[in-house]
Amino acid sequence: MDSLSQIALGAAVGVAVMGRRTAVWKAAAWGAVAGTLPDLDVLIDQGDPIRNMVLHRAETHAPFWLTLFALPLGAAVAWMSGQRALWWRWVLAMWAALVTHPLLDAMTVYGTQLGLPFTNHPYGVGSIFIIDPAYTLPLLVGTIWAVRSGGAGRGLAANAAGLVLSTAYLGWGVWAQQHVTGVARAALAAQGIVADRLLVTPAPLNTLLWRVVAVQGSSYHEGFRSLLDTGPAMVFDRFDRGTALWPAVQGQDGAQRIAAFSHGFWALGERDGRLHITDLRMGQEPAYVFSFALAQRQGDAWVPLSQVQQVGMRPDVGRAWAWLWRRALGQPVPPPR
């Protein structure tokens, strides 16, 4: 999730665990710090853009390592707060704020390596977009209320309510995802599309509109479904995956990493004489965040680039925003291309 959501979650968890055992602002502040610490791995340069992508949310997002780190962190916070007798409670608060960070990240589609050091499998439920105000606002309101009240009155109850509402919203997203998955499978079958793998993930900033990607051999199909749509029909657009280009890059480390990290939701294409690989999970046609140039055309051959380059495209924000909300409200408007 975005940094603000993680800060808000960490602060809310810190307040919930510490309660009235310390100043509410102090619990919120340290919880916010712990809630954002795992994302400091973005400051590490792994050598190229693809490695930076796939090695984000790795060791610093593994509950095993975070549990070990919580002990010295909690003890240090207790010492700096002048509450050494409560060191165990601070350890619990820091552990909870640290571990909820990757658990929330795993609800997005990106991929979080929760099982390290035992497995580097990137887990991604994909039931919430990386930025969703409906998730973040209850946490912010509850925590601010608690801090402003100093823990008196209904402050701590408001903080707890924020955690309950935000967690319930995550549950809603999982239900909505399963509902749309059922509709998508039926629509694909009716159109004779047999998907090798299926992705159902929300469009930006909401859980009303969902994007569906069905990979079928050398092609993939993209469609959208709003929870406010009437009728079972879905419209899918077909695109070439560029699998014929795979032999040109299959020996490259970057190509192998994207193919594995994306769980098979990748495509190859040529643009401006360069061969690029795209993670199809984040973005929509034709604009994707994670697209990387791997090779340069020289005659009839592809020559690997000396340095992988990120060439992701951004959509026209105005057109995309206007389409997003009209489509989310159930209007059958075609996506901007």
Per-chain topology:
Blueprint (H helix, E strand, L loop, with lengths): L2 H16 L5 H13 L12 H6 L8 H18 L6 H19 L27 H17 L5 H36 L6 E6 L6 E8 L2 E8 L9 E5 L5 H4 L3 H9 L4 E6 L2 E6 L3 E2 L2 E2 L2 E8 L2 E10 L6 H12 L9
Antiparallel strand pairs: 1-2, 2-3, 3-4, 5-6, 6-9, 7-8, 9-10
Describe this structure as you would to a colleague.
By secondary structure, this protein is an alpha+beta fold. It folds into 2 domains: 3-150, no CATH class; 191-318, no CATH class. Helices cover 45% and strands 18% of the residues. The chain is built from 10 helices and 10 strands. The strands form 3 sheets. It has a 4-stranded antiparallel sheet. A 4-stranded antiparallel sheet has the order 5-6-9-10. The longest helix is centred in the middle third of the chain and has 36 residues, at 155-190. It is globular and about 70 Å long. The two termini are 27 Å apart.
Beta content comes to 15-25%
Q: How many DSSP E strands?
A: 10
Report the principal-axis shape: globular
- Count of DSSP H/I helices: 10
The whole-number mean of residue pLDDT values reads 95
Largest sheet: 4 strands, antiparallel
Quick recap:
45% of the residues lie in helices and 18% in strands. The protein has helices at residues 3-18, 24-36, 49-54, 63-80, 87-105, 133-149, 155-190, 246-249, 253-261, 317-328, and strands at residues 197-202, 209-216, 219-226, 236-240, 266-271, 274-279, 283-284, 287-288, 291-298, 301-310.
